Amino acid sequence: MTSADAAGRRGFFAPYAEVFAIPRAWRFSVAGIIGRLPMSTYGLGTVLLISAGTGHYGVAGTVSAASALSNAVTAPRLGQLTDRLGQRRVLLPACLIFVVSVAGLVAAVQLRAPDWTLFAAGIVGGAAMPNLGPMARARWSMLLAGSPRLHTAFSVESVADELCFVIGPAAITVLATQVHPAAGVTVAAVSCLIGSLWFASQRATEPPARPREHAADKRGQGQSHRQEERAGAAVPPRTARLAAPALIVVVPVFLFIGMMFVSVDLSTVAFASRAGHKALAGLVLGTYALGSGTGGLWYGARTWRSPVWKRLAITLTITVAGVCTFWAMPNLAVLTPVIFVCGLTIAPTLIAGFSLLESQALPGRTTEAMSWLSTSISVGVALGAAGVGFIIDAHGPRWSYGFAATAGVIAVLICLSGLRRLSAPPVPAV
Question: What is the spatial distance between Cα 319 and Cα 257, in angstroms, rounded to a whole number?
Answer without folding.
Answer: 10
